[in-house]
Amino acid sequence: MRTVYLDNNATTCVAPEVxxxxxxxxTELWGNPSSMHAFGGQVAASVTKARxxxxxxxxxxxxxxxxxxxxxxxxxxxxxMGVAATWNGPGTIIxxxxxxxxxxxxxxxxxxxxxxVIEIGVDGEGRFDLEAYEAALxxxxxxxxxxxMWANNETGVIFxxxxxxxxxxxxxxxxxxxxxxxxxxxxxxxxxxxxxLLTLAGHKMHAPKGIGVLYVRRGTRMRPFVIxxxxxxxxxxGTENVPxxxxxxxACELAKAALADGSEARIxxxxxxxxxxxxxxxxxxxxxxxxxxxxxxxxxxSFEYIEGESVIYLLSxxxxxxxxxxxxxxxxxxxxxxxxxxxxxxxxxxxxxxFSLSRYTTxxxxxxxxxxxxxxxxxxxxxxxxxxx
Length: 389
Fold this sequence. Notes:
There is one protein chain. With 389 residues, the chain is an alpha/beta fold. It has 2 domains: 4-12 and 261-383, Aspartate Aminotransferase, domain 1; 16-258, Type I PLP-dependent aspartate aminotransferase-like (Major domain) (Aspartate Aminotransferase, domain 2, 3-Layer(aba) Sandwich). The protein contains 13 helices and 12 strands. The strands form 3 sheets. A 7-stranded mixed β-sheet has the order 2-8-7-6-5-3-4, sandwiched between helices. The longest helix has 21 residues, at 38-58. The two termini are 36 Å apart.
């Protein structure tokens, strides 16, 4: 049975070029970069080069502003908990209602610790409420931390992160963005977007699982998250995961090249064809975020009167990989918090499916999904007690 993988917002395949770049650091250059001998020194040089490559990818002023870590969840936790740990007493954290659990979880912990956490809502298209955000900034004196994603992982809706950062900085806040779903799909330049902290995940951009990046703008006050070593300029202890760091840098190189050669336009065209085809062949369906600016690879569509989980299982039997939302929330019987925050009608909220493409997706795969998904939806609706007659 063929496999058609359209769940790239959950994870991506490792690019062959990334695997090739990593291999020598498993078999030949396996020294500890902190060692003083020459064998370790050449490995340290590779880490330094990789740091510069990642810094260039996001427009960082200095390579030293790049902190390598284990994943974006660690980076998000470090950003929120590390900044709040520098405050003398309670402060205010402003985030959005549709953040990834890697941000909402630390926010819950900070609220339990006595901090004020404000969640800004979105409209029916998933667009961030800038007016409510400005009001929250004005109404809360004292130390503030803003943590708002660059692009939503479920709908693909792009937030006005430059304006969010500018307003936050003007109000004296430290500003963090989870850019996991934007990286490699949109240009990222921290010289133009004045965030203090930014997180990336390797496995969302064709590097392996187990490597992430936290950008820390020079002068940003925060405490280390992993304590016990001098690595990463004392901000994240632990021997560097050199093969994965090298792989992350290679993935950034490839992503930068893909943005330059128009690959994202090709992906957007396939996404739009999939979207139009499903709307035409599956009545009573709606695209979540249809009128908002979205990253080019993401389609979130609700099929009314049926359960998304059942659709996913039947598609999986046909070799089609999609999802109902964030992989980190998989297994929950509750509908997506993102879709609920958008006010999607009850008849559609449980039937939301996310298709997410990559530069390895082909037109033939889109044809296969367009052929079989309407059959699955029709089958489930024939069994549904909620379909009006």
